[in-house]
Amino acid sequence: MRRRDFVTFLGGAAVLSLPARAQQPPKMWRIGYLGFGSASNWTSEIEALRSGLRNLGYIEGKNITIEYRWAEQVDQTFDLATQLVQMNVDVIFAPASTQVEPARRATNTIPIVFAQHADPVGLGDAVSLSRPGGNITGMSMLLTELSVKELEILRETFPNAARIGVLWNPTTPSHPTAVKAIVAASETLKVQIVLAPAGTVAEIQEAFATISREQVSGVLVLSSPLYNTHAELLVEYQMKHRLPEIFANRGNVNAGGLMSYGADLDDLYRRAAAYIDKIFKGAKPADLPVEQASKYVMVINLKTAKALGVTIPPTVLARADEIIE
Q1: Across all residues in the chain, what is the average pLDDT?
Q2: Which fold has domain 143-263+297-324?
Q3: Third-level CATH fold of 29-141+265-294
Q4: Is the distance from CB of 140 to CB of 120 less than 8 angstroms?
Q5: What are the pLDDT digits (tens) for 44-95?
Q6: Are strands 112-117 and 136-140 parallel, antiparallel or unpaired?
Q7: How many CB atoms lie within 10 A of CB 152?
Q8: φ/ψ of residue 196, rounded to 5
Q9: Banded pLDDT at 142 (limits 50, 70, 90)
Q10: Do the first three CATH levels of 29-141+265-294 and 143-263+297-324 match, i.e. the same topology?
Q11: What gap in Å lies between CA 274 and CA 152, rounded to an integer?
């Protein structure tokens, strides 16, 4: 073969190889979503996460797939986390401390990203906010400080209240610390706290019966996946016992709760997508600082207030970001 023909042959072969190389499919990343309750109760937050991922170039079915696992009870979360580990997903998305704890027990190598962790340092899921140090990182809502603020709002709404009930979940890792902070703050606010623990649906009914007997003026419901999932049930007991409730999540108010003050969960889930993106690009969770919520929303349901015969003080109404008529 002459030299000119040989060079032409090589050039043609190189051109032919380019399309084959360009057609190689992109890597399909796998995200394990460890949820609690029913997916239908978290549609807004799930879409916020998916939207955040899409904005970063991740399209389901093209370069990412999300494996969802939903626990109906807390004791199921570890087995579901183990399933995700056995599937060898690239990252586990465990939104709150309720899911982070079993995920941490299931793996210390697969990255875990959270979106609304109440107290990552206090619960040992991060060495510090600036440098988590392990395989876990994400967004924090700082439940302890948030719960005290909710107590202050409820106290301002009912200035003559002698007692306020607190519904808390013993199976939610961050709640004991939040309860201590609430009890301490109650002394300054000069109001008695009636604690009512409930870690199951059946116990929620018992808790409200206990609170009702104590003749409280209102109920502070600490943020928990269980309480978010059963928003309608909590509203049912609110109306049955005539006990106005304040929540951390606006979803509970949309369902009929009186008011809420808390972090914008859609914003937290959307921002959590950035952690997943950085991990896919090679970053280590240990080096990704935990970020705190920056958007807080106060929602008041005036329709519920009217049904309960409650008058919201003008000073409280003026601070609302959203009012449901």
Answers
A1: 92
A2: Rossmann fold (3.40.50)
A3: Rossmann fold (3.40.50)
A4: yes
A5: 999 999 999 999 999 999 999 999 999 998 899 999 999 999 999 999 999 9
A6: parallel
A7: 14
A8: -135, 100
A9: confident
A10: yes
A11: 34
Return d(Cα 3, Cα 19) in angstroms, integer: 26
CA dihedral 197, 200, 205, 210 (to 10 degrees): -20
Of the candidates 264, 261, 241, the one whose C-alpha atom is nearest the C-alpha of residue 156 is 261
Q: Taking 50 as the threshold, does the pLDDT of residue 17 lie above it?
A: no
CB 114 within 8 A of CB 266: no
What digits encode the pLDDT tens for the residues 261-285?
A: 999 999 999 999 999 999 999 999 9
Mapped to the 3 state alphabet, what secondary structure does 100-144 carry? HHHHHHHCCCCCEEEEEECCCCCCCCCCCCCCCCCCEEEEECCHH
Q: What are phi and psi of 176, to 5 degrees?
A: -55, -40
Q: Please, where are the H alpha helices in the chain?
A: 3-22, 43-55, 77-86, 97-106, 143-157, 175-189, 201-213, 225-229, 231-241, 250-254, 265-280, 302-308, 314-317
Delimit the domains of the chain by residue range: 29-141+265-294, 143-263+297-324
d(CA 261, CA 147): 9
Instruction: Give the Cα separation of 22 and 27 in Å (integer).
Output: 13
Q: Which residue's structure tokens are 């419901």?
A: 221
Report d(CA 50, CA 200) in Å as an integer.
30
pTM listed for this prediction: 0.85
Token duo for residue 194: 């009636």
